[in-house]
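User: What would this chain look like folded?
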Amino acid sequence: MNTFAAFSFIFVAGMLQAVGAVMNGALNKAMVNPWLAMAISFLLVLFLAIGLFACMPKPLPSTGEITQMPSWAPLGGIAGAVAVFAGLLLIQKLGAGPVNGVTITANILASLLIDHFGLLHMEQHSLNPYRIVGAILMIAGVALIAKF
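Assistant: Here's the prediction, encoded as structure tokens.
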């Protein structure tokens, strides 16, 4: 996949994430119980993943690849579930802009730290003045969106 296609895909995924947060908020409102709403949301994701796996079952990991996997690697879904739960619980109260803005800004700030320190086996990309200004602009932008 070329760079333009990769960034286009990420852009669409980001837009869908914003729409998904609003959908989850509506689901939570209808279900009344946020745990039930999250279970329904993730159950549908599970069915989609099983269906896609049934259509495209290869490649499969070898035993060696599984044993070399970091112990924390499967926990990414749980980390994502926290963001989904926060969104479905708070989006109706705070609005889509502030909830998604804070989520994305927190994601950027954490990503900058992960890159800078090479955490979780990521290649190191040091902080520089441009990245720091970008982070400050993100924080300022979200503050404006939340306030107005």
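Helices lie at 3-31, 34-55, 63-68, 76-94, 96-117, 129-147. If you want, I can go into more detail on any region.
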